[in-house]
Design brief:
With 359 residues, the protein is of the alpha+beta class. It has 10 helices and 15 strands. 44% of the residues are buried.
Length: 359
């Protein structure tokens, strides 16, 4: 019986960087999904088809420890591109009590790419991790995701797997969005060995509008985070002072969103942008890049609020306003720039799995 699983990407609304120090952050699941299909075996080996990662289908077997052994030798570059697949697939098999069938595995993450620009920072690796783990789990237990306890346990497994593949970096906020969907307030224990998190679902407030922008410049979250961590190690007092300020702003923004206080949330967005700029200056990391500076200028001209979404350095930004007309003015100005408006919707759906009879 075939299995299909899909998990959404994410858009971070507030709390970047500070979330890794234990601050609350806000994230929305969006209608860009990773989809994984497991089909009954067609031959004597596993087959992987993932056109975004590799143009040709790949055959592989499992050794005695259920580690993937590709039949054809892969280049080092391709091994790196497949790292989240191999790590996640092997982690999923650890939870099975019996040996798996030799599936035909198809992975589609094309929704996380934009034209010729390449990948957008919507959390494709987390969505892939969650959907692949979900498909493997559903292959043996159709109702594995049936209640809150089971969902949280699955989230912890996905978080551990994703962190391992990512080099133990990241808060896991993207994993939470992929697992649970909707808008979440997310807060972790900053101990890197912990896989605990406080996750609360929130409603999107009436009268808050947003516009997502792609700067056209891909950014490496890993490089930016490492630069910030270098600042933390060399200037612990300065780092802690900034994190305290960013934590306070994020608390205010979360409280405002929870209480449908749109003006207070817009104020928190503007103050958080300024704090991210200060973090970039002190860590010498290009968090507020030239692209983000230009977009922030448009926001000021139009009386909107603006901040990067994610680590900064390019990639994504968000305009917020309490007026759709203001965002229409923003869109007109953005149309005169090299930057691109990305149409997305917030989705309530987290991980979903389907058996062939249900599809």
């Amino acid at each position: 019986m075939g299995i299909r699983a899909q998990a959404p990407g994410k858009l971070i609304l507030l709390g970047e960087y500070a979330v890794m120090e234990g601050a609350p952050a806000l994230v929305a699941a969006i209608n860009r999904t990773a989809e994984v299909t497991l089909l009954p075996p067609g031959n004597d080996s596993f087959q992987l088809q993932a056109p975004v990662m590799c143009s040709d289908a790949l055959s592989f077997q499992l050794d005695e420890q259920n580690n993937i052994q590709f039949i054809t030798a892969l280049s080092e570059e391709l091994q790196q591109r497949l790292k989240f697949f191999t790590t996640t697939f092997e982690a999923g098999l650890e939870k099975l009590e019996t040996s798996p069938e030799k599936w035909e595995v198809t992975i589609d993450t094309s929704g996380f790419y934009h034209g010729d620009y390449g990948k957008i920072g919507f959390g494709s690796s987390a969505a892939l991790t969650v959907s692949l783990l979900g498909a493997i789990a559903a292959s043996k237990n159709e109702h594995f995701y049936k209640d809150n306890d089971a969902q949280y346990s699955f989230f912890q497994h996905a978080l551990k797997t994703h962190r391992f593949a990512q080099g133990k970096l990241g808060s896991g906020i993207d994993v939470a969005a992929s697992c649970f969907g909707g808008i979440l307030q997310y807060q972790i224990n900053p101990d890197p060995t912990s896989h605990e998190a406080m996750i609360e679902t929130m409603d999107y407030p009436e009268g808050l509008y947003l516009l997502t922008i792609w700067t056209g410049v891909p950014a490496s979250t890993r490089k930016l985070v490492r630069q910030v961590h270098k600042f933390r190690d060399h200037s612990p007092n300065g780092f802690q002072q900034l994190m305290t300020e960013m934590t306070d702003i994020s608390f205010s923004g979360c409280h405002a969103l929870m209480n449908n206080d749109v003006p207070a949330f817009l104020d928190a967005v503007e103050r958080y942008h300024a704090a991210m700029a200060q973090l970039g200056q002190q860590s010498e990391a290009p968090i507020i890049s030239q692209e983000h500076q230009a977009l922030a200028t448009i926001a000021r001209d139009c009386n909107a609020a603006y901040k990067p979404s994610g680590a900064g350095g390019g990639d994504l930004g968000i305009f917020f306003s309490d007026s759709p007309e203001v965002l229409e003015d923003v869109a007109l100005q953005v149309a005169e720039t090299p930057y691109t408006i990305i149409q997305i919707d917030i989705t309530a759906n987290g991980l979903q799995t389907y058996h062939e009879k249900d599809a």
